[in-house]
Design goal:
Radius of gyration: 17 Å
Oligomer: single chain
Order of helices and strands: HEHEHEHHEHEHHH
Strand order of the largest sheet: 3-4-5
Strand content: 5-15%
Low-confidence stretches: none
Length: 170
């Protein structure tokens, strides 16, 4: 699906490219590269592999938008991916599938865009709109940072958890 999204985005934003960080346990990135080549997208896909903290920060700083495709499965509905929080804290507007906790973390139009699960056309349209509009991109980036700062910092989450358990500090 990310390759379908990329192909659709490039129809309107020809210089768009996809940077993939990380690697699969079984070399899935090689299969991804082969699929990109088969679709004529090899030059538009950069596989960076596993990144240390500095390289990860540099990669996030280079990006204009993050895609967060998330299959609508029972497991995915029950987890809150840490990577999403990291992307938003870095000030990246995120285009995410409306699955589970992603619908709660990404506020559509304020801190990113939320699209119907599995809808490559909707994800591509949202990503292309963010890429084409620097003011929108800046507003969503600010909204992403603010959303994480307001509701997802450890200090605030710990305080909420303590309150839920009735922990009283002197």
């Amino acid at each position: 699906r990310p390759l379908e999204v990329l192909a659709r985005v490039r129809a309107g934003v020809p210089d768009a490219h996809l940077v993939v960080a990380g690697a699969g346990l079984f070399g899935e990135e090689r299969r991804f590269a082969a699929l990109a080549a088969a679709r004529g997208l090899a030059e538009a896909v950069e596989l960076r592999g596993w990144l240390d903290e500095a390289a990860s920060a540099a990669t996030l700083a280079e990006a204009d938008v993050a895609l967060y495709p998330f299959d609508d499965t029972l497991v995915n509905r029950t987890k809150s991916p840490f990577k999403l929080l990291e992307l938003m804290a870095a000030g990246l507007p995120v285009v995410a599938d409306a699955v589970g906790e992603l619908r709660e973390v990404v506020v559509d139009g304020a801190s990113g865009r939320v699209v119907p699960p599995g809808d490559a056309a909707a994800m591509a349209a949202a990503a292309a709109a963010v890429l084409a509009d620097p003011a929108l991109r800046a507003r969503l980036a600010d909204g992403a940072r603010a959303r994480i700062a307001a509701g997802y910092r450890w200090s605030g989450r710990a305080a909420a958890l303590e309150a839920a358990y009735g922990v009283h500090r002197p």
